[in-house]
Description:
- By secondary structure, the protein is mainly beta.
- The protein has two domains: 3-76 and 190-219, no CATH class; 95-188, Beta Barrel (Elongation Factor Tu (Ef-tu), domain 3).
- Helices cover 11% and strands 35% of the residues.
- It is built from three helices and 18 strands.
- β16 (201-204) and β17 (208-211) form a beta hairpin.
Amino acid sequence: xxxxxxxxxxxxxxxxxxxxxxxxxxxxxxxxxxxxxxxxxxxxxxxxxxxxxxxxxxxxxxxxxxxxxxxxxxxxxxxxxxxxxxxxxxxxxxxxxxxxxxxxxxxxxxxxxxxxxxxxxxxxxxxxxxxxxxxxxxxxxxxxxxxxxxxxxxxxxxxxxxxxxxxxxxxxxxxxxxxxxxxxxxxxxxxxxxxxxxxxxxxxxxxxxxxxxxxxxxxxxx
Length: 222
C-alpha cells in the first residue's frame, strides 16, 4: 500500500506540468513575462470513495502517515485497468519498433533518436505525437513531446524529438548521460514523487473511512 494505491483509487487527477513563470504589468500597460524555472509535475488527487476500515486499508493509513511528506516513491498513472488512456501512446509504431529506438544525443529540450535498429518505418508513420510520454531507460525523469515526429523527419537514421523541458542528467547510473539508452514510452514511463499534502481521514458508520481532502504529489528533481 502506497501513494500508488491512492493514484489507483483516484476519483480525479489534476496534472500541472507548466514551467514556473512570473509576470508584471508595466506602467505603460505592457505585460512582461520571464521564465523562473523548469516544468515539474504536480498531481492533485481526489479520492471520494469510502474504504473499509479493515485489513490492508487500515495498513494503508499507517503507510501514508509513515511516508508523510518525506519519503519518495516511484509511481505511474496507468497501473490500473481503465487508466491506460492517460499516458497512452498516440503514434503509429508497433511495440517492437518502439523498443528498438535508442537515444543518439540530446541538447537543451531536444532528444535526438536513432532509428537504425528499427525496420518498417514509413514517411507517413507518426513516431511520436504531441503529448506522448517518453523516458530515457536509465533516467528517473519523464518528458512529453511538444511537436509531432514523423517518419519523414528521419535523416541518416536520426530524428529530433522536442520535449516540454530541458533534459535532466541521469541519476540511476551514477550520473551518466542518457545517450545510447533505450526509451520507455507511454505507460512504461514513471514519476518519482513525494507528498506535498496528505489529508486527514474520518471514520464513518459501517466500519468505513474517507479522506478529508486532496492528496498533492510533486515530482522530485535531484
